[in-house]
Each structure stands twice: as structure tokens, then as C-alpha cells.
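User: Sequence recovery, please. Input:
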């Protein structure tokens, strides 16, 4: 270790207040004031560690890179373009300047006055075309020439939005808001395209134009979409992905066609990358510092640099999955908190990036921001459960139900640039998406708070990312919150058994009562049925007229009686009509008919036939004067004597007495 001459106290002071002075080396045993340096080491990230006898450990991180802001002589820079390796042309709000990047001084003010420059473009002849509200300036070899309404017939206004070379003879120029046409600088002639391409009037203010790989095709961005102009055929071609871009945003700020043929479109709602016929949108979710894209440039390594309304980002596309690798440069890296100007960007050949801002020219060296070799790893540095500190080496925590408030503190142990560190976490059993964590303000620690967790097994996953937006390995912590006694599995089994016993008891009581009710209802129905049967039998035995409805208890029985009465009536005079014939005619067997008659009327089928004959005979005796002998044959009796016996047995009188009105029967 080499000696150093400056005091450590001064270097500590310089580090704490300016962060610009680093100790190159130090010798143990050196002293400053009343303290001594006992040890020193230099880590792999170019950080310096000093062990002090009384004051602890002093750490001096490596320098990230110098970022400066250069004021522009009481003017606000708006657009910039490189002339060579050293000289740059700057358009401010109040003039046009020739600027030396080596001395970082304005060499000469070329144009004075309120220009309000909207765009600058350098062609391959070394000329720079400056679009202003005074007209179109052309700068070449220290001289400027102005094209405006006074010397270009057809210009409707002096305000020029942009000018892009098409070929050796002409420029594509937007005059005023959306008047697009060709300017022939040598002849001071202007040809308007809107007359032959009326669809141009559908676009509002045109912003910027960019030649594509096919030099005949120029992409034009407007405030409500973008299109491609074929300058050879003078036709408009709508990009096949225009509708997808419009789904996110219709207002475009800038555009870049890089050396690989990819098209970068900056909008007010994210960065659009169009490559190989596919569209990819890059937003804050992928690591951008802000979604309002102000300017885009490409460096010598092929990295894309963009400025947003609150930061600068470096982007490269990882192969083969085409995922964006974003390095965010923010105020934590020394970037001043200023507002960036739209399309105010210039990449110099030496790798320095110049950005136009509201406070001046921001200068940073792209070489200072190298890739981080590996994403950060996480360590658990604190574990608190229900406001009680727990050992951090426990692989799996088993907690009771009251210990459901858990707080984890994690850190990347990155002492060099902790403010660039971001953290995110998720609980696998509760969600799939990631949540940003709450850090301590400088990125050294991140705190994850989980409150009021129900009993269960949980796994917390945490990841960290540095400014390059690469997320490191996942840190996992598993813990188990046990349920209270009344929610344990065996308690639930007991609850289940008690519930089953109670349910069985209730069901048994319900079934018992239901059986009793059904038994009472059945007894009541049986009694009613017996009563109905008894009334039917009495009606059949006593009444002369047979009413099937009063003899039966159901429609089925009523239909059976009606069929029997009909077939018996059809065979009333047939003395040979028997029970077998009756069963055949009504479609029943003799045995079933016998059972049915016994159930309904308590008589046999033979008695039913005879009684029907006798009741019909009683009706004939009352309505006609047919002799009894002849009447017996009419109702199916073979002899008058047998008829008289059966009639007397049923009605208590002879047929003659019944006719004479001596009957006591109903």
C-alpha cells in the first residue's frame, strides 16, 4: 500500500459533501486529528474501505461518471446536431450557436432572434437544415441561408416543422402544421403534396420525419398517427402496425431508424419498437424512468439512448428473446432534476451525449455507464414477528395464530450505488403479481410488511434489481402460522362429529314425527275409505238406480263400474251371460274381477250381475205393464219363479206387489 499525503479527515469531508474525491491508497497506522486508520481494502466494485480506530468503518464508493449541465448564455437550448468530432450546432430559443464540445464554449452566434426551432437535420453533404418559425435555415461551412415565404413561392407560412433530404435535388418539408411538399433549394421552388394526396389533411400537426432503409420511404410522425411516404411514387403507405400503436397512444414526439433496421417511436405513453414486422411496447414496467419519451439517439455500440420527462435511459435488446435491457440514469447518478426538451439530443463521436433541457445542456459520457456483470443478490438482514426480533437463520418459521404480523428486511449489501436498487416481492399463496417494496429512502434496505395473515403456510419471494433493470435471483422465506386450538384439525373433527350427532338426532326426531303424522293420515284415509266403501255398498244394496260416482272412491273404479254396467246392459236379455263373459268384455281375469268387486262393493261378480238385472227389472215394473213372466226373460232370468224368488229376496216383495205399490223398498 502506498502513502498518501492528504488527510483522511479532508477526504471524508469531500466524500460526504461532494462525492468527487476518492482515496487512491492508504497506509495502516496513518493518523488524522485524533483517529487512526487501522486497515484498508479495495473491493471488486472499485469501492474503498477504511477501518478506523475510533470512528468505525468509512466506505467511499466508486464514481459513476461525471454528469454536467452547461448553461447556454441566457438562452434555452432546443435542438442540437454534430458537425464533426468537436463542433456542434445548437439551436436555442433566441438564436443559433456554433458550440465547441472540447472547450464547452459558444464559438459564435450565427443567427439572432426568436427562432423557436422545431427540428434539425444533417445531410450527408455536411449541411444542417434548421426548421424554425422564421423559415428553413441551411447551415454549411459557417454560412447560413434562409428559405421562407418571401423567397419560396407557395410557402403558406414561415413556420417550418421539419425538413428531410429526399435526394440531391429536393427536400421533404412540412410548412406550417400539415402542409407537406418538396422544396427544391437551388431553384427556390415548392411543390405541395396535399393537393394530390388529400388524405394528408386527415393528419393534425406533423412532428418529425425519418428516412427508412429504403431511401425512397420516409416515416412521418404526427399528433394523431404516423404514415410512410413513398417519395418516388408520391403515395402514402399506412404501416401495418399503425392501429396497434394507436391503441396505446396517438401523439408522437420523436422517431429513430437505427443501424439494424429497427424503428423506435417515442410517444407520450411509452416507447414503441417495431422490428421484423412485430411491435413491442416498452414502459415503466420494463424499467423506463418515465413513459413520456422526449428524444432518441443511438451510440457507437448500438445502444439506444432516450430522454424522458424525468430521466435518461440506455436500452439494448437482448437476443434471442428480444427483451429490453434498460439502464436508467436518474438523479441518483448525478443527473440534474431538469425538464428535457423534445428531440433535443445529440450523440457525439467521442461517446458523449448532449441533451437539451430547461436549464441548459446536460452532458454525460456514455462510456461511464457500463453493464453490471451480474444482478444483485439478496440477504435477509432483519426479521420481526409481532414486534419481536427473530433469528434470521431459521429456514422455516412456525408461529402461533397471534404472530400473524411479520416484517422482513432485505438488502443487496450494495454499498456502491444503493439508490439505484429496486425491490419487489410477492406471497405465492396469495397472489401471482409482484409488488414494489418500501425502502429506507436510499435503497440500502427494503421492508416487507405482512399483517393480519390467516393461519396457513406462506412463501415470500423477494427480488432486487439495480439500475440495469435485471432482476436477480429470488430470495425465499417460508413460514407457517398455526391455527388456534379451536381451529385445529382435531377440533374441526370434533365439531364435525358433534354436528353429525346433532344432525342425526334432528333427522331421527323429524322422521319419527313424520312417520307419526303419516300414520295418522293413513289411518284417517283408511277410515274415510272404509266409510266410503260402506256407503257405496249401502247405496248399491238399497238404491234402485245405480250411480257409479256414488259407488266408487276413485275415477278408475268409476270407469270400471261404468264399463261393467254398459256390457251388462248390452247383454241384459242374455240368460247365458256369465261372469267369465263379463271379465272378458272388460279386459280382466275372473280372479282380478272377483277381488275388485269384493273390495269396492263387497259382492261377487255373479251377485253384481244379478243385482243389476233385478234393479233394471224394478225400473221396468214401475215404467211399463209388461207381464212379469215376459219381464223376467227381458232381464236375463230363465224362469219367472227364480226371478220372483230373487226379486223378493232383494226388495222384500214380489214383482207384482212391487208394481202395485206395496213395496217398502226405496
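Assistant: Recovered sequence (666 residues):
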Amino acid at each position: 500500500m502506498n502513502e498518501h499525503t492528504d488527510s483522511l479527515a479532508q477526504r471524508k469531508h469531500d466524500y460526504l459533501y461532494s462525492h468527487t474525491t476518492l482515496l487512491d491508497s492508504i497506509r495502516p497506522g496513518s493518523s488524522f486529528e485524533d483517529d487512526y486508520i487501522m486497515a484498508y481494502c479495495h473491493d471488486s466494485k472499485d469501492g474503498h474501505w477504511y477501518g478506523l480506530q475510533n470512528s468505525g468503518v468509512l466506505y467511499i464508493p466508486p464514481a459513476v461518471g461525471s454528469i454536467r449541465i452547461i448553461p447556454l448564455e441566457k438562452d434555452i437550448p432546443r435542438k442540437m446536431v454534430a458537425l464533426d468530432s468537436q463542433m456542434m450546432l445548437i439551436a436555442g430559443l433566441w438564436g443559433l450557436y456554433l458550440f465547441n464540445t472540447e472547450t464547452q464554449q459558444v464559438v459564435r452566434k450565427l443567427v439572432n432572434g426568436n427562432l423557436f426551432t422545431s427540428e434539425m437535420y444533417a445531410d450527408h453533404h455536411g449541411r444542417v437544415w434548421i426548421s424554425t418559425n422564421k423559415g428553413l435555415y441551411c447551415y454549411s461551412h459557417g454560412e447560413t441561408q434562409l428559405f421562407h415565404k418571401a423567397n419560396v413561392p407557395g410557402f403558406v407560412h414561415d413556420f417550418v416543422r421539419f425538413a428531410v433530404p429526399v435526394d440531391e435535388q429536393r427536400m421533404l418539408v412540412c410548412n406550417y402544421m400539415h402542409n407537406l411538399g418538396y422544396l427544391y433549394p437551388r431553384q427556390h421552388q415548392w411543390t405541395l403534396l396535399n393537393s394530390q394526396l388529400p388524405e394528408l389533411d386527415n393528419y393534425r400537426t406533423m412532428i418529425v420525419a425519418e428516412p427508412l432503409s429504403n431511401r425512397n420511404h420516409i416515416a412521418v410522425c404526427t399528433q394523431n398517427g404516423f404514415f410512410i411516404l413513398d417519395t418516388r411514387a408520391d403515395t402514402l403507405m399506412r404501416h401495418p402496425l399503425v392501429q396497434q400503436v394507436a391503441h396505446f397512444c396517438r401523439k408522437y414526439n420523436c422517431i429513430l431508424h437505427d443501424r439494424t433496421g429497427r424503428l423506435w417511436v417515442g410517444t407520450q405513453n411509452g416507447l414503441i419498437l417495431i422490428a421484423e414486422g412485430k411491435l413491442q411496447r416498452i414502459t415503466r414496467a420494463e424499467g423506463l424512468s418515465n413513459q413520456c419519451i422526449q428524444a432518441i439517439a443511438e451510440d457507437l455500440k448500438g445502444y439506444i439512448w432516450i430522454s424522458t420527462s424525468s430521466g435518461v435511459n440506455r436500452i439494448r435488446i437482448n437476443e434471442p428473446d428480444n427483451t429490453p435491457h434498460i439502464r436508467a440514469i436518474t438523479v441518483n447518478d448525478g443527473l440534474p432534476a431538469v425538464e428535457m426538451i423534445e428531440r433535443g439530443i445529440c450523440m457525439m463521436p467521442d461517446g458523449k451525449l448532449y441533451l437539451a433541457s430547461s436549464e441548459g445542456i446536460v452532458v454525460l459520457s456514455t462510456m461511464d455507464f457500463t453493464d453490471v456483470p451480474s444482478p444483485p443478490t439478496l440477504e435477509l438482514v432483519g426479521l420481526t414477528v409481532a414486534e419481536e426480533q427473530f433469528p434470521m437463520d431459521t429456514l422455516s418459521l412456525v408461529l402461533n395464530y397471534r404472530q400473524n404480523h411479520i416484517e422482513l428486511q432485505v438488502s443487496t449489501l450494495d454499498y456502491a450505488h444503493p439508490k439505484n436498487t429496486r425491490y419487489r416481492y410477492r406471497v405465492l399463496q396469495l397472489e401471482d403479481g409482484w409488488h414494489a417494496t418500501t425502502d429506507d429512502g436510499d435503497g440500502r434496505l427494503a421492508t416487507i410488511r405482512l399483517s393480519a395473515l390467516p393461519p396457513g403456510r406462506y412463501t415470500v419471494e423477494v427480488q432486487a434489481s439495480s439500475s440495469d433493470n435485471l432482476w436477480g435471483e429470488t430470495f425465499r422465506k417460508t413460514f407457517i402460522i398455526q391455527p388456534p386450538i379451536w381451529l385445529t384439525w382435531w377440533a374441526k373433527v370434533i365439531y364435525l362429529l358433534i354436528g353429525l350427532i346433532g344432525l342425526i338426532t334432528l333427522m331421527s326426531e323429524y322422521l319419527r314425527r313424520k312417520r307419526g303424522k303419516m300414520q295418522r293420515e293413513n289411518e284417517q284415509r283408511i277410515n274415510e275409505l272404509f266409510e266410503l266403501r260402506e256407503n257405496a255398498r249401502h247405496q248399491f244394496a238399497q238404491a234402485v238406480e245405480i250411480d257409479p260416482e256414488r259407488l266408487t272412491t276413485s275415477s278408475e273404479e268409476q270407469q270400471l263400474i261404468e264399463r261393467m254396467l254398459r256390457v251388462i246392459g248390452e247383454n241384459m236379455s242374455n240368460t247365458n251371460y256369465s261372469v267369465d263373459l263379463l271379465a272378458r268384455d272388460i279386459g280382466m281375469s275372473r280372479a282380478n274381477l272377483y277381488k275388485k268387486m269384493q273390495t269396492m262393493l263387497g259382492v261377487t261378480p255373479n251377485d253384481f250381475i244379478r243385482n243389476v238385472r233385478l234393479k233394471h227389472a224394478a225400473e221396468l215394473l214401475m215404467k211399463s205393464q209388461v207381464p212379469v213372466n215376459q219381464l223376467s226373460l227381458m232381464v236375463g232370468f230363465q224362469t219367472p219363479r227364480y226371478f220372483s224368488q230373487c226379486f223378493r229376496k232383494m226388495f222384500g216383495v214380489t214383482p207384482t206387489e212391487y208394481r202395485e205399490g206395496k213395496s217398502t223398498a226405496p
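The radius of gyration is 54 Å.
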